[in-house]
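pinned: reference chain
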Amino acid sequence: MTDVKWTIKGREFIHCNCAYGCPCQFNALPTHGHCSAVGVIEIEEGHHGDIRLDGLRCGMIVAWPGAIHEGRGEVVPIVDDRASDAQREALLRIMSGQDTEPGATFFQVFSTTFETFHDPIFAPIGFEVDIEKRTARVSVPGWIEGRGEPILNPVTGEAHRARLNLPNGFEYDTCEMGRGWADTTGPLSLSLSDSHAHFARIHMTERGVVH
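pinned: its structure tokens
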């Protein structure tokens, strides 16, 4: 870890292949024995040292052959093409777990489980998310097309609301639960259908999540 200080405040949409609620949040094994996911963050306020990150977006496509903590994972980092060279480097350092105390953020935790780091993608990232309504749309042309929706009551068809609170979480403290669909192309080609998604506000620093 270096002496660089950084902060990210914003909104995120994460969608994986597991059942609603995501077993990872309960220290359980993945629903289907393996994990694959897409995630996008929109930074409302942020900096890495003296470099401002306000208004930028970043994301990733990830996959593990088993549970995340067992390692052997792969990642495709995605950075907003509007970012300057300095902002790109700053975001990639944060996303790869650098300049971060061990175990402090999900970026750093995940970085220890990746065996393969694919070349980063610099592309436009279309992102719309409404945390309260549990809706999201993600578009990274040529890489990700995804969406999130509320879980529906199977009898009435009405939107069902569920939250998860993690007082000591390393990604967020509270998130809204939903469902999602996503397809990806490239070195990690995924098709995720009607499975877990969450919508959350995040506030992370190099020392962890601000609760």
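why pinned: The helical segments are 85-95, 106-111. The radius of gyration is 16 Å.
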